[in-house]
Every structure is written in C-alpha cells, then in structure tokens.
Amino acid sequence: MAPILLNSMGNEHNGYIEQEKVYVKNPHLDSMEEDILYHFNLSTKTHNLPEMFGDIKFVCVGGSANRMKAFAQFIHQELNLQGNVDDIRDICEGTDRYSMYKVGPVLSISHGMGVPSISIMLHELIKLLDHARCRDVNLFRIGTSGGVGLAPGTVVITDKAVDSFFRPQFEQVVLGKVIVRSTELDEELARDLLQCSAEIPNLPTVIGNTMCTHDFYEGQGRLDGALCSFSTEEKLEYLRKAHEAGVRNIEMESTVFAAMCRVCNLKAAVLCVTLLNRFEGDQISTPHDVLVEYQHRPQRLVSHFIKKRLGYLS
Ligand SMILES: O=P(O)(O)O[C@H]1O[C@H](CO)[C@@H](O)[C@H]1O
Ligand SMILES: O=c1cc[nH]c(=O)[nH]1
User: What is the pLDDT of residues 117-135, one digit of tens each?
Assistant: First the structure.
C-alpha cells in the first residue's frame, strides 16, 4: 500500500511561520468537556493547567526518570532559583509511567525508551502546553546514543532525524494506513546550540544526522544481542553506509520527536551524547562515573542555551 505523505506536502503544516501558537492538531478536542492526560495523572478538570504550566518556555525530555530529576535540580542551581533542590517534586507522582519536574520556566520530563513510549508522552505534553496556553516554547531531547565514527563523549546536535533506511521521515500507521511525516528539525535552534557548545570548555559537539531505530540490539546492528542474523562485516558495511548518509549517532526516539514537534509548530532540537564508537564495539563498557559525566554534557549545553535566552549570560 502506498504511504500517505503528510506534512512534506504542507497540508498538515499550514501556518508554520505565521502562527506563534498552534500546538494541538485535533478538532475533536474542542468538543471534549474534560481532557484527562492519563499517563501524567493530570486533567483539565482537576488541575488548573494555565496556572501550573502557563509560564513554561523550555521543555527538556530524556529517557530516564533519574536523569530528568537530576536535570531539574541542575537547572534550579544554574538559574539561582529560590528554595531547596530537594523539594522539587515529581508532578506525575500519582503514576509511574513518566516523571515531570517544573523549575521556573523549565519543564523536565522522562519519556522511557523507544518511539511508542515517547510518542504517548508527547501527545499528552503537547496537549498540556496547549491547555496551559503556553507560547514560544522550545523543546529539547537530551539523551544518550551510539556514535558512528565519533569519539565517545561527543554531543551530536541532530540535523535530520532519519529512519533505519536513512530517510528523514517517520511512518505512523493510522487506521491501517501508513502516514509519513517529515522529521526536519529547527535549523536555527541547532545552529544556536552549536554556538553555545563553542562557548563551553570540554564539550566536543558536532551537528549530524541521527538514526532512530526501533531496537537497541539487532535494530542498531549490534552483534551482542540474544539474536543476531548478520556477520561482523555486514554490520560494519551498514555503519559505513549510515556514515556516508551523514549519520553520526544512533538512538531510539528522534524521528517521532521531530515529526510531532514539527506538525505542532514547536521549535525542537535533539542533543545526544555518544557513549561509544559503534565502529569499535557494541557493549557499553565505559566506567559508570565517565558515563555519568557524558550524560551531563547535553544538560550543560541546554542549560547554557537557556541561560543565554533568559539573559543570564551575554
Ligand atoms: O538516553 P535515552 O534518552 O534513554 O536514549 C537512548 O538510550 C536508550 C537505550 O539505551 C534509548 O531510549 C535511546 O534513545
Ligand atoms: O548505542 C546506543 C547507546 C545509547 N542509546 C542507543 O540507542 N544506542
């Protein structure tokens, strides 16, 4: 069956430039008396979303709940906000699906691993931003990844999020039909982040394409999963082809993140640190303290960006 091409033809994307606030793209929401954001344990009837979230300007998302709590505490210190970092509480504590922390104008949310998990989170996040009447919000995915020809610890700011065939698109099956959405990210935001990286010592950063897969093992060409149907040479050949297509890292959420943000007029960027060079191996054997420092790098970069935008730095 031929896929249906959506926003690359523009029909889902009218007004991307002109309208400063168009988040949700769903006419059915208008007729709903209440919207229950089930996986956040929030609702339009039980929570005053504009009061709770109306001042949000930056949303940072990442796979792990602990990382996103640590990021909230880090940003709290970086912005010199009042109060004790230990008092920052999980807004979604009534559910263990996702964790969410609000620190001034910054929201930090975990999304779990893989496209289905982040996709559910993004549906509810985008509705939340819309219900809260937020404007001019920037979204960042701050994650980890496998590097393709890069030294471990390099931060990759995604130019294009591509699928396993190196195509800059995300395919979603809707009512038994394949819908294809573009995964282009905001170029200016990526450039601004690269500029920020140049202002921070010891933060090796590149812009490159990010391949998003639906699996960590076979799907990323690993030889060390429970199943493997290819040779070492076939693995390396695939990585070489990916590198030729501009791919510099591999992770598991960027395509749907880029596609959903684009359709909903949200400026977004993906920044993932590489934990290893996939040409050199598959196992993540780097010592824990080094991995922790690596994971902190995208956080430092986004923090610098936020501080610049808020006028803390010149
Ligand atoms: O570090 P996070 O944000 O979890 O992202 C990466 O790490 C996970 C795999 O270990 C996948 O979710 C991948 O995208
Ligand atoms: O190799 C890696 C490392 C982190 N995350 C991934 O998805 N792949």
Answer: 999 999 999 999 999 999 9
Expressed in angstroms and rounded, the spacing between residue 63 Cα and the centre of ligand 1 is 6
Do the domain assignments include residue 121? yes
**Of the candidates 292, 294, 295, 251, the residue with the CA atom closest to the CA atom of residue 115:** 251
Residue 254: which of 66, 62, 89 has the closest Cα?
62
> Among the atoms of ligand 1, which is closest to the Cα of residue 251?
14
Mean pLDDT value across the chain: 94
- Domain total in the chain: 1
ipTM, 2 dp: 0.99
Radius of gyration of the chain (CA): 19
List the domain range (segments joined by +) for residue 42. Answer: 4-8+22-309
Residue 23 above 60 pLDDT? yes
In a domain, 16, yes or no: no
Burial label for 23, CB within 10 Å (0-12, 13-18, 19+), is buried
> Which residues make Cβ contacts (< 8 Å) with residue 266, sequence separation at least 6?
23, 126, 129, 137, 138, 139
Residues 266-283: pLDDT tens digits? Answer: 999 999 999 999 999 999
* From 251, 271, 279, 291, mutation site for ligand 2 pocket: most ligand atoms within 8 A of C-beta: 251
Ligand 2 atom 4: residue of nearest CA: 145
